[in-house]
Structure formats: structure tokens, C-alpha cells
Predict the structure.
Amino acid sequence: MAHKTDIQIAREASKLPIQEIGGKLGIPSDDLLPYGHDKAKVSQSFINSVQDRPTGKLILVTAINPTPAGEGKTTTTVGLGDGLNRIGKKACVCIREASLGPNFGMKGGAAGGGYAQIVPMEDMNLHFTGDFHAITSAHSLLAAMIDNHIYWGNELDIDVRRVVWRRVVDMNDRALRQITASLGGVANGFPRETGYDITVASEVMAILCLSNDLQDLQRRLGNMIVAYRRDRSPVFARDLKADGAMTVLLKDAMQPNLVQTLENNPAFVHGGPFANIAHGCNSVIATKTALKLADYVVTEAGFGADLGAEKFMNIKCRKAGLSPSVVVCVATVRAMKMNGGVAKTDLGTEDVAAVKKGCPNLGRHIENLKSFGVPVVVAINHFVTDTEAEVQAIKDFVAGQGAQAILSRHWELGGEGAEALATRVAAIADAEMANFAPIYPDEMSLADKIQTICKRIYRADGALMDKKIRTQLKDWEEQGYGHLPVCMAKTQYSFSTDPNLRGAPVGHSVPVREVRLSAGAGFVVAVCGEIMTMPGLPRNPSAETIMLNEDGQIEGLF
């Protein structure tokens, strides 16, 4: 039987009106701001009204390091949410919004897959409710106000060579990484070098995802450092009086978006910072709201657990006062084989030895996750080519790590295929065994926080930071930013900074190329190895095969 594509399955979904989905969570229709029939934002006044309710159990879905074979983290998140509802639990899913750039590049969308999807898939992967456009606009407004301030006499005495606020666009466009702005003579201002990042790398995105409400949002926007003076003193967004107007542009974007799974269960899709260059989790406001409305909330963190889960625990949970009850680490037989050295073209052939050889990558993630004091379950996301012997090899390995691996067939069967996983996860969450704590304290120095992550999570000998970087970190500590957590920007494909080094490497070092202060979001970014904040498109971008068919339906999104 030919398998239906994700978009075909999504198109055949029998969706309920969004008011009915809101009803499942007890949200009155007056508190839903509908975007069409199948999407709505939840009002801030309703969110405020449920704050005194008990908090549900938080379940984090993470994964091994991604491989071209695919792991299926979002698919598992959605499948587990459907599975929990299917076994009679009141559960809600919280995931990130998709970035336009990668949709037209090679990564594809972010709505799950097979029979474990969130719909409307096409809208979610395109403009959705306009949140990313709002973030791009707010970011662009600030960029315009900086150059405008300099043009009209530069009252704040900004050093034109030290403007650190770049521009953003929600597209993969390598031509914009480094540009020269304000060319064309006196009328256009003072020429200077700048560049573009992708919207999801904007500090505005990180702030939106970490803010509790509009007041908190405005305060954080005002705290962003946009430039420095000649004496190296910082110039803040509030000095340019940009924070008020930026908040106005983000007023609606701040409200979480409610949609549904294929099985008509509620899902919040809100925010979407990149996981390899930002903190890679959906918004705090969506997660916290879901925890007040459901007994179990399943959320995901981007890429492998060395990036997504580490930042979820050390940044998001620390800042928002959240505590996960259980972590699900997703693995696939195919990915284990790739980690074991099998080429992508040969993944369909049974190779138990390669599965075993690839398991140390999974083993290290399990160890790391346990070090946060949270119980771990491994979900083996089932592919039709998996053999029983291969699946058993992973189960045996995981049992040896003191955890349990459960085969989950949600891609093929939806919630029904995730019942075993859901039953086990709920049992652990209900047993209240978690003893969660971030792996470093606030008061540790910034350099030591970077070293701690490199040694304890990446198992490196250490981070390599030259004198300039160490001095920069010390300066920030003196300015009062020493208590901030660190956000590591590194490749998602390996524990190391070499994307080709699979498995569980040791004896490597982590070169820190530069450090950036996100004073509004509240973290320090350490850029490691060859990581880009503006991706490029591949030789044959997905955009070449995305089009409307004769019925006016979208084809080619995945």
C-alpha cells in the first residue's frame, strides 16, 4: 500500500470548530480570538483568570542527536498527547511554530507527521496567525530607530562602529549575512557594516517566548542592548524609546495559539526560537497556560537533548519556575544505525550490530538527562522497516542504562499506537519521583557555566576561550549580568562542534568563537564552532516543488 503524504493525511482530517477544542480545556468562546475556523488566540484576561488553579504535570520530549534518517520528536510529542487523551487523561500538547525559511529549504515543517500531526498543517507551516511577521516588524522598527537616531544628530552618542543590533528576515538567505547599510550619500545616513539573521534568531523571539505578560515583555524589550558608546557603555532599546511601540506590534503575538491534533485534542503552538542558536522551546506563556488547563502537558525542545533539553532545563525551567515530571527521549532504529556507521541508502537492511554500535549516543543522552534529577523514558519511534531484533537491541541497551524503551507506533496509528508509551509516562509522572534541578547555580561565573555544560553535557575536555572572550564575560559580570544562564550556539548533529562526529565522542574541545549578551531575554549566547545565525538554502530547495494544484490546494509542503 502506498503511504499517504503528511499533507494528504492532514487535508483529510475531520477538524472540529476551534470553539469546541477550547471547550475541552474550559476556555469560553468569548475568550478565543478566532483566526478562521480552526485557529484561535487565547485572551490574556482568561489566562490571568486561571492562575490560581493547580498546575498539571509537565512532560518533555527530546531526542538523540538528529541524523538525516529522522527521529520524529514533534510526531512523538503529538502522538503522546493523543495517547494520553486516549487512555482517559486530560492532556494538551505545546509545540513551537515553524520558521518559514527552513520550510522552503530542507528541514520541512514542524507539525508532526503521519497520523500524529497538528492541523491546519499548511497554515502552521506558512503565515499561521502572523506571530513571526510581528516579531520581524518589531525587530525592524528598532533597527530603523537606531539608524534614524544616529542620522538626526546621535544624541545618545552611539559609536557607529559598535551597533550590535542586526536586522532579521524570516527566510534562509545567505546573501544577507554581512552587508553594508546606509550607502548613497548624506541623505541616507552614515555607512556602516551590519547583517541579517533569521527571524527565529532574533532576541525579540527569545523575549516573547520567555515573557509572562505584556508588562514583562516591554521591560525585557527595553533591557536589550543595541549598541555601545565610545567608552563601551551600553545603549538600551529603552534609551531610544522603542520598547513601547515594539510591545504594541507584539500585542497579539504574545497570546498563545490554540489548534488541534488529527484526533481533535487541544494543542498550543506558540513561539519558535531556533534550538541550535537560541533556546529552542515554545513560549513560557503557552506552557504555563496549558499546565493550568490540563493535567498533563507534553512539550518538546529542539534538536538533540544536548541542546534542546539542556536549554529547556537550564534556561526555560529556571526562568519560569517549571519542573518537568518525566523526560521522553526519542530514538529510531534508523538513527541508531546511522550512528553506527551505516549509510543512509542502506538503512532498510537489518543490521543489529550497527544498532548496538550506534546506541552509545542514546546512552549518553539518558545519562545527561538523569543528571537533572528527572526520570527518563525512551520512545522508539517505529518505522515500517524496523525488525524485531533491531528494536530488541535498543530495548536491551536502554534497560542496561536503568531506563525503559517503549516502541511507539503513533506515526502509523495515531494515539492508539502511543498507548503503551502514554501509560508508562503517566505512571511515572503520577509517582512524583522527579527531583529536578538545573546543572549549575545562578551565582557560578559565566565562564564556569560554559565549561560546566561543555564538560558535563558534551563530555568535552573543556571549552576553549581566548583572552578577549574571557575579558568580555568578566566585563558583563561587573555590569551585573553574571547571574544569567548561558545559551550554547553549536551544531545539533554532534555532542562536539564537528557535525560529522557521531556517536558519543570524548577527548574533544569546544572552541567558543564569540559571546553575545542577550540582556533582554536574560542569557549569554556562546557561539561555538561554525554555527550560522542565518542559514542558506540548499542546492535544490524544497521551494522548487511547493505549488498550488488545480484545486487550489498546496502541494509539496512536508
The CA atoms of residues 490 and 531 lie 6 Å apart. The chain has a mean pLDDT of 94. Residues 131-151 form the longest helix (21 residues). The first strand starts at residue 32 and ends at 34.
